[in-house]
Design a protein that fits this description.
By secondary structure, this protein is α/β, with parallel strands linked by helices. The protein has 3 domains: about 120 residues, D-Maltodextrin-Binding Protein, domain 2, CATH 3.40.190.10; about 90 residues, Periplasmic binding protein-like II (D-Maltodextrin-Binding Protein, domain 2, 3-Layer(aba) Sandwich), CATH 3.40.190; about 70 residues, Alpha-Beta Plaits (2-Layer Sandwich), CATH 3.30.70.120. It is built from 8 helices and 16 strands. It has a 5-stranded mixed sheet with strand order 4-1-5-12-6, with helices on both faces. Strands 9-8-10-7-11 form a 5-stranded mixed sheet.
């Protein structure tokens, strides 16, 4: 049987990735000591690996594809193909994560120019060096094995660290000076593997379903019945991906209306729809939205 070998991120992205895959239609399970998740799809085999290393395994062909960070793929300089972008992370789903240049709150460094001759601690040494070259600044970049926030001010003058909300940096009395790189979660693939028609088709189907699951986050389907003479008021009140769907009921004076809407708006929409003549209003959660 044909098989697609896929890498899944171990660490902070693991739980959110498994949740997303399940909503997309694939159930993965793994014991605490195993690096090889089981999948209910016999055409998929998976391996857990750190996102920092993943793109190297895909480039070498150990894996056909992987879900990892664009940042680590760029940091490694891996020759792989980015097949899809999936904007999600461990805390948020609405925006990319950022690698930022940060200094102590009382530091005199106000911009990248203030780093001349200074020491920077970071996990993304190559991205940081590229950033310095773009800005024509010479500084020492040291690799950090973790707990980068504590390196300043005694072990380094500045750090380059990843953040979603900035709360951890603020908690450690650090001030963001600049964003050096934005990153999203991506699906990457080995270029040779993509020459296999079956593997490319399987991966494209997986990406379509993953995107559909992401697009469904925060959205619900509203369904209701309304007298035809009130239909215009209902349609004006309902936002949606496109125009609402309207179907004739057995009573020619009544129609059924349905529309995909943002969940936070539902608490305002349902009372408006009721006042506009809507009846039998139903809210349905969604797992996937495929454009």
């Amino acid at each position: 049987m044909a098989e697609l070998k896929i890498g899944l991120p171990k660490g902070s992205l693991q739980d959110s990735t498994f949740d997303l895959l399940q909503k997309a239609g694939w159930k993965f399970s793994v014991s605490s000591r195993s690096y090889y998740p089981r999948c209910d799809d016999p055409e998929l085999s998976a391996m857990l690996a750190r996102p920092q290393e993943m793109s190297r395994y895909v480039e070498r062909g150990v894996l056909d594809a992987a879900i990892t960070g664009l940042d680590w793929t760029m940091e490694n300089g891996s020759d792989v193909e980015v097949v899809a972008e999936l904007v999600y992370a461990k805390a948020t789903t609405a925006q990319p994560v950022r690698w930022v240049l940060a200094v102590p709150e009382d530091s005199k460094i106000k911009s990248v120019k203030g780093l001349e001759g200074k020491v920077i601690s970071t996990e993304v040494v190559n991205l940081t060096k590229k950033y310095l070259r773009r800005n024509k600044v010479k500084a020492t970049v040291e690799f950090s094995h973790g707990a980068t926030e504590v390196k300043v001010p005694h072990l380094a003058d500045a750090i380059v660290e990843i953040t979603e909300t900035g709360s951890s940096l603020r908690a450690n009395k650090l001030r963001i000076v600049d964003t050096i790189q934005e990153s999203v979660t991506v699906v990457i693939a080995n270029k040779k593997a993509l020459q296999d028609k079956w593997k490319r088709a399987k991966l494209n189907d997986l990406c379509m379903m993953l995107k559909g699951a992401l697009d469904a986050k925060g959205k619900v389907l509203l369904k209701l019945n309304v007298a035809r003479n009130n239909l215009d008021k209902i349609v004006k009140a309902l936002p949606g991906l496109h125009a609402p769907t309207v179907n004739q009921l057995s009573d020619e004076n009544w129609v059924a209306v349905e529309s995909v809407v943002d969940e936070p708006r539902v608490r305002e929409l349902i009372p408006q729809l009721k006042k506009a003549g809507g009846e039998g209003i139903i809210e349905i959660p969604l797992n996937k939205v495929i454009p």
